[in-house]
Amino acid sequence: MRVPLAPDALDEALAASGRRWPPVEFHTRLGSTNDRARELATLLDAGWRVVLTDHQVGGRGRLGRVWTVPERASLAVSVVVPLPTPSLAAWAPLVAGLALARAVAEVTTEAGTPVTPRLKWPNDVLVAQDDDRKVSGILCELVAGGANGVDGGGAALVVVGAGVNVDQDRAELPVPTATSLALAGAVVGREPLAARYLLALRALVDELGDHGAAAMRTSYERACVTVGLDVEVHLPSGVVAGRAVGVDEHGGLVVSTPTGRRAFAAGDVVHVRRPGGRLT
């Protein structure tokens, strides 16, 4: 039985961290959590406002891709993330993916049904237990300005939206390359998953602000399974083949090609696949 979300439980888990979090804004049904979070980003003190829904009916991903999910079967959450400087905005998608991968590992392990998440650049979380199918999607949108910046300053606000397939069966998934935590053998509550993800995201944003892109680059490369693989980078203009050797100071994927090294920004790439079409 798919039970409704309990937003109070998420509020309590966030408050227990000792950090200040605005109350979670919960909707039984909502078109897009990202759209609502963008509206909240215009408010004063908008940082770390969270939008949560039991049923997102107008979800979208990168490049305008849209999808629908059954009611109460997935986690759909967006948060307004204040970055210490606009120059770090390109790292938001990567940091969000790293946070979500950590949350999936922690929550499924605590539930006694551990899932092995594999992070594909820039932020897809794949599940090793289901043939590296994709369990989540993340969409980051930079918000211009906001209300007097963050805390009256000029730092960047980024709306980070995450969708995680929690309880879908195979027939409820949109594409054959998708999976859910349930299909990987894990039965978890959406509230603890959301809490672990949001707390991990905030900790990583703090780390990014305190230690800069160089330290985050090391942490990300250690977790990203794309690094070290032969890949095909699909661009609107064509396909570039080579070996992924790391990420650059802006979070771009660095690929060694026959003509030299090239870096690709997440916003410019349609797909990164293994030769033959596999996701990684």
Please specify the SSE layout and strand pairing:
Layout: H1 7-15, E1 25-27, H2 33-40, E2 50-53, E3 59-60, E4 66-67, E5 74-83, H3 92-110, E6 117-120, E7 124-127, E8 133-134, E9 136-143, E10 156-165, H4 190-223, E11 230-235, E12 238-247, E13 253-257, E14 260-264, E15 271-273
Parallel strand pairs: 1-2
Antiparallel strand pairs: 2-5, 3-4, 5-10, 6-7, 7-8, 9-10, 11-12, 11-15, 12-13, 13-14
Helix pairs in contact: 1-4, 3-4
Structural summary, described in words:
The protein is an alpha+beta fold and 280 residues long. It has 2 domains: 7-222, 2-Layer Sandwich (BirA Bifunctional Protein, domain 2), CATH 3.30.930; 227-273, Roll (SH3 type barrels). Helix content is 25%, strand content 28%. The chain is built from 4 helices and 15 strands. It has helices at residues 7-15, 33-40, 92-110, 190-223, and strands spanning 25-27, 50-53, 59-60, 66-67, 74-83, 117-120, 124-127, 133-134, 136-143, 156-165, 230-235, 238-247, 253-257, 260-264, 271-273. The strands form 4 sheets. It has a 5-stranded mixed sheet, sandwiched between helices. Strands 14-13-12-11-15 form a 5-stranded antiparallel sheet. A 3-stranded antiparallel sheet has the order 6-7-8, with helices on one face. Helix 3 (92-110) crosses helix 4. The two termini are 34 Å apart. Residues 147-152 have low confidence and may be disordered.
Approximately how much helix is present in the residues?
25-40%
Domain tally: 2
Strand content: 25-35%
Helical/strand content category: alpha+beta
CATH class of the largest domain: Alpha Beta
Kindly report how far apart the N and C termini lie. Answer: 34 Å
Count of separate DSSP helical elements: 4
Question: Order of helices and strands, N to C?
Answer: HEHEEEEHEEEEEHEEEEE
Q: Unreliable segments (pLDDT under 50, ≥5 consecutive)?
A: 147-152
The gyration radius over C-alpha positions equals 18 Å
According to CATH, the fold-level topology of the largest domain is: BirA Bifunctional Protein, domain 2
User: What is the strand tally?
Assistant: 15
- Proper CATH architecture of the largest domain: 2-Layer Sandwich
GO molecular function: ATP binding; biotin--[biotin carboxyl-carrier protein] ligase activity
Protein name: biotin--[biotin carboxyl-carrier protein] ligase
Keywords: ATP-binding, Biotin, Ligase, Nucleotide-binding
InterPro entries: aa-tRNA-synth_II/BPL/LPL, Biotin_CoA_COase_ligase, BPL_C, BPL_LPL_catalytic, Transcriptional_repressor_C
